UniProtKB/TrEMBL annotation:
<dbReference type="InterPro" id="IPR039430">
    <property type="entry name" value="Thymidylate_kin-like_dom"/>
</dbReference>
<feature type="domain" description="Thymidylate kinase-like">
    <location>
        <begin position="10"/>
        <end position="186"/>
    </location>
</feature>
<dbReference type="GO" id="GO:0004550">
    <property type="term" value="F:nucleoside diphosphate kinase activity"/>
</dbReference>
<dbReference type="InterPro" id="IPR018095">
    <property type="entry name" value="Thymidylate_kin_CS"/>
</dbReference>
<keyword id="KW-0547">Nucleotide-binding</keyword>
<protein>
    <recommendedName>
        <fullName>Thymidylate kinase</fullName>
        <ecNumber>2.7.4.9</ecNumber>
    </recommendedName>
</protein>
<dbReference type="GO" id="GO:0005634">
    <property type="term" value="C:nucleus"/>
</dbReference>
<dbReference type="GO" id="GO:0005739">
    <property type="term" value="C:mitochondrion"/>
</dbReference>
<comment type="pathway">
    <text>Pyrimidine metabolism; dTTP biosynthesis.</text>
</comment>
<dbReference type="GO" id="GO:0006235">
    <property type="term" value="P:dTTP biosynthetic process"/>
</dbReference>
<keyword id="KW-0418">Kinase</keyword>
<dbReference type="InterPro" id="IPR027417">
    <property type="entry name" value="P-loop_NTPase"/>
</dbReference>
<keyword id="KW-0545">Nucleotide biosynthesis</keyword>
<dbReference type="GO" id="GO:0004798">
    <property type="term" value="F:dTMP kinase activity"/>
</dbReference>
<keyword id="KW-0808">Transferase</keyword>
<dbReference type="InterPro" id="IPR018094">
    <property type="entry name" value="Thymidylate_kinase"/>
</dbReference>
<dbReference type="GO" id="GO:0006227">
    <property type="term" value="P:dUDP biosynthetic process"/>
</dbReference>
Length: 211
């Protein structure tokens, strides 16, 4: 029987180096002979993703609740494919997940518990890497971009909301270090987790935020 792959989620605020580090991690895992694929949320290519993309680029307006549900639907529609890949032995590195969903929407003022609801029952990550960077340091990296949420005031609130969501599966990575050192810290963390999981890797669970 093939052992299932790991579901590795990478979260963090904008400019924390998330996407760069996701690419590096996928490459490092592949080089170790581990079948690995990069997944990114939102997936802007699907129907829901196109609406999300237009909203983020400020080309359309949507009610805060409605866009929140679209982000969640964008994850749900991927779950069947992702669970099949994992069960076939593929490891997934996921750039943003439901934690971003709740952190961003609740930072805008929506109720945190309300925000969690649509994502309850998603695939449970084996590990969440949180690339931790202060907003000041994030801004020093050339400022934020032009998309809807890339503003200092909101980013500060998003970070506070992330802190309310952390649990035992979260590993904090000091993202203020050099790219190489962040890469090393992530690798050591993943390697330790892999060893830990190897002997008793659980069946894949659709268990996110279930009590
Ligand atoms: N974002 C991302 C949300 O508001 N909700 C979500 O569920 C997800 C996955 O979308 F500002 C926000 C976070 C970010 C924006 O993300 C686009 P990328 O990683 O910059 O594409
Ligand atoms: Mg962005």
């Amino acid at each position: 029987m093939t052992q299932r792959g790991l579901l590795i989620v990478v979260e963090g605020c904008d400019r924390s180096g998330k996407s760069t580090q996701c690419d590096i991690l996928v490459n490092s895992l592949q080089q170790k002979g581990i079948d690995t694929e990069l997944v990114k949320f939102p997936d802007r290519t699907t129907q829901t993703g196109k609406m999300i993309d237009s909203y983020l680029q400020q080309k359309s307006e949507l009610d805060d609740h409605a866009i929140h549900l679209l982000f969640s639907a964008n994850r749900w529609e991927a779950m069947k494919t992702l669970s099949e890949k994992l069960n076939n032995g593929k490891t997934l590195v996921v750039d943003r997940y439901a934690f971003s969903g709740v952190a961003f929407s609740s930072a805008k003022g929506l109720d945190l518990e309300w925000c969690r609801n649509p994502d309850i029952g998603l695939l449970t990550p084996d590990i969440v890497l949180f690339l931790d960077l202060s907003i000041d340091d994030a801004e020093k990296r050339g400022g934020f971009g032009d998309e809807r949420y890339e503003k200092r005031e909101l980013q500060i609130k998003v970070r506070d909301q992330f802190m309310k969501l952390k649990d035992d599966s979260w590993k904090f990575i000091d993202a203020s270090q050099s790219k190489e050192n962040v890469e090393k810290e992530i690798w050591n963390t993943i390697d330790a987790t892999r060893n830990l999981l190897q002997d008793n890797i659980q069946e894949l669970q659709f268990n996110l935020w279930k009590k």
